[in-house]
Amino acid sequence: MKTKIRLVILICASFIFSNGNAKDHVNTLKLQQNEVLQADIKIYLLGGIVSAITQKEIDFGKKYHVVFLDFGCVPPSNLEYYEIQNYKAFDLLNIQFGPKWQEELKPTTLGFKKWKENNK
């Protein structure tokens, strides 16, 4: 189920934000899917019409081996599940890198504020 959701998200993002032809869409999608499946840690974001994944998140992802997944303007019905998944990701980041990553993560990341309050 998770893979299907990721695939739908990647397909939507691919079609919305790319300017190439259909073959480029497929190649981009395959590359993005491989990155998602190989990532150590996944963090879910609530976006909007415009993607919530910026260059800052891309740089953060490279530095801390994280992939950000954006739901776009339609959040899933089980949003609490993804918030809990983010809590687990935040815990892993703390274990692997200590607290320094917290200063670099966007404070509006799904569940981050609540997680941070509970982990002072």
What percent of the residues sit in helical stretches (DSSP H or I)?
A: 55-70%
What structural class do you assign from the helix and strand content?
A: mainly alpha
- The stretches of 5 or more residues where confidence is low (pLDDT under 50) are 16-22, 33-38
What value does the Rg take, in angstroms?
Answer: 14 Å
With strands numbered from the N-terminus, the spatial order across the biggest sheet is 1-2
Summarize the main sheet. Answer: 2 strands, parallel
Helix count equals: 5
In percent terms, what proportion of residues is strand?
Answer: 5-15%
- Count the beta strands: 2
| Separation, N- and C-terminal Cα atoms | 33 Å
The shape, in one word, is: globular
- What order do the helices and strands follow? HHEHEHH
Mean pLDDT: 78
